[in-house]
Write a structure and sequence with these properties.
Length: about 210
């Protein structure tokens, strides 16, 4: 395994309105560089969450090509990041994911995270998660390239693709949907394209019944 410790370059603000439902999170525009500030605090019943902190406790430190995520199975590879390593600052707490692990050229797509089945009853829901660019511009030539990520929750939330420049801020993204039937669904998050070691950063996922 290889860990390098390289420099963090500047952030740029990105706001993304998913499905024209949420708009930009107001708090994200006022403090783009801070870590350990959890904006993911909507009221409601949390029915699924993943902040990767317990995974870091298990791993003990940044672990490239980590395959022990407690909430997801992984096809391809991801890196479990201890905030600060590789110059990457997580959004909340000390742990987050680089959605493209450290096996360049071996995986296409670079990674697919699939949650266990989540029971859904009719109602209104909000999925929120922090996503942003790889934060590693200049580390490797590939780190200067944009990273695209898809998010889907089976038929309840059709697949959405977001694309991040390396410097795009790790920002809370929110998606709302209404379930009209009961069912089981898995959350799926995928880093698109051939693996190149530099992936979008993911942190603090919550699925809430509103
Ligand atoms: Ca975290
Ligand atoms: Ca990586
Ligand atoms: Ca990449």
């Amino acid at each position: 395994m290889k860990i390098d410790y390289e420099r963090l370059f500047g952030y740029a603000l990105l706001c993304f309105s998913a499905l024209a439902l949420s708009g930009c999170d107001s708090s994200s525009s006022s403090n783009n560089s801070a870590t350990n500030i959890d904006n993911n605090n909507s009221s409601g019943q949390v029915i699924f969450s993943a902040d990767f902190e317990s995974d870091l406790e298990v791993a003990g430190a940044t672990t490239v090509n980590f395959d022990g995520l407690s909430n997801f199975t992984v096809e391809g590879v991801v890196d479990l990041i201890a905030s600060g390593n590789f110059g990457i600052l997580c959004a909340v707490g000390n742990a987050c994911l680089d959605l493209d692990g450290t096996e360049p050229g071996l995986h296409d797509p670079a990674s697919i995270l699939t949650s266990s089945a989540i029971a859904i009853e009719p109602g209104n829901y909000q999925l929120s998660l922090y996503l942003g660019g790889n934060q590693r511009r200049g580390d490797l030539p590939a780190c200067d390239l944009a990273d695209s990520v898809t998010i889907a929750f089976d038929s309840f939330l059709p697949e959405t693709t977001l694309t991040f420049d390396s410097a795009e801020t790790l920002t809370l993204r929110e998606f709302q949907f209404t379930a009209t039937t009961s069912g089981q669904a898995s959350l799926r998050i995928s880093q698109l394209g051939l693996s190149d070691s530099c992936g979008a950063i993911l942190d603090d996922i919550e699925l809430i019944r509103l």
